[in-house]
Structure formats: C-alpha cells, structure tokens
Amino acid sequence: VKLLRFFLFNPQNVYSFDDIARRARLVRRTARTELNILERAGVIRRKYLYEALPGIGERGAPSHPYKRRVLGYALDAAFPFLTPLQTFFFETAPMNAKTMLAYVRKAGAFDFVAAAGVFMGEFERRIDALLVAKKVSEQKAEQAIRMLEAELGIEIKYAFLKTDDFRYRVSMRDKLIRDVFDYPHEVLVDKVGVHERLSQT
C-alpha cells in the first residue's frame, strides 16, 4: 500500500531503488520484493535516470558533480486501471490536516502550524505545511515530516521557521507567508496570535 501510494501520488517522477526504500521507510529486501510485484502487475516500469554525485578535486576539495546512470522505477501511464486506482487511493488516503498535526506533534510543541497545499486538496502549491517553533529543532521537524511522507506516499513541501523569524516575516508579509495565507489553508496551532491579524490584512 505504501508503494502504491508513493507511485500513484508522484506519477511524473522517476526514483532510484535506494530513494524509494528510503522515502517509503522499507527495508531493502521488502522494497525489492514489492517493486517486483508491482512491475509484474504492470503498475510500474523500469526507467533509467542519472544521479549526481560529488567528485573529488585537487587536495580533496569537492569539484564539479558528475552523474551516474542508475536503474529507477516510475508509474506506468499505460496501466489500464490507473485512473480508478488513483481515484480510490486519493479518496481513502488520510491526507488531511489532522493527520499532519498528529505526526508533527511527535517532534515537540510548536508555536504555529498551518496546513496548505496537498492537505487542502491542491497538489500544485509551493508549500504544504508551515511549522514554527522556538524550542523544537529543525532536525526533529524534518524527521516528523519524513515519517508522514512515508505514511502518505507523497512528498510534502514544508517550511520550518523559528518563532522570531516567523513574526518578522509576518510583519513584512513576505512571499513565504503569502504562499500560505493567500491560498486555501487551515491554521492548526497559533500560540503566536497572528492568524486573526493576517486574516484582516
């Protein structure tokens, strides 16, 4: 189910085996078995891609990156039941603000959390979640988001800000803030007290 969601929700992308196993949080043996099943069923197909790798320059300094050709997998657009399968998984996936907040709270207490983009049913927005905290580290916030991505099977575009930086950006009404509040969104946590002020501007 995780891999089906992953490919159905990312239909235009090609991923390497390592990337798939990491994003879906599957052990390599399980990932290999499930990929083979999906390939035999005609849901996915093999496709090569190029991955950039850092080169080694003089005195051990990084040089221009080079690329290597690796085997990847992508959703097969010719799969005859693709449309009904996508519809079913979109309608049954727990892709909502409540699910996002449950995962985010595992990282700690946030001062502000807003859901946007995919959680509002809009998959083309530049940001899906805005996380603001004074004490939570960015690393913990990222870990929570990666766990949520593995559960939902879709890449989540998020921004993490420290509380003081968030207040400053709100006062300046910068592009990041507009990318959230100028489009459909849902405020889930607001200990900073800025939502009402933003709604009036």
Q: How are the strands of the largest sheet arranged?
A: 6-5-4-7
Order of helices and strands: HEHHEEHHEEHEHHEH
Mean pLDDT: 87
Number of helices: 9
Output the radius of gyration.
20 Å
Give a short synopsis of this structure.
With 201 residues, this protein is an alpha+beta fold. Helix content is 43%, strand content 20%. Helix 1 crosses helix 4 and helix 5 (97-104) packs across helix 6.
Features of this protein?
4-stranded mixed beta sheet; alpha+beta; 3-stranded antiparallel beta sheet; 20% strand; 201 residues; elongated; single chain
What does this structure look like?
It is elongated and about 55 Å long. It is 43% helix and 20% strand. The chain is of the alpha+beta class and 201 residues long. The protein contains nine helices and seven strands, in the order αβααββααββαβααβα. The protein has helices spanning 2-9, 17-24, 28-40, 82-92, 97-104, 138-152, 163-172, 175-181, 195-200, and strands spanning 15-16, 44-53, 66-75, 112-115, 129-133, 158-162, 186-190. Helix 6 links the parallel strand 5 and strand 6 (158-162).
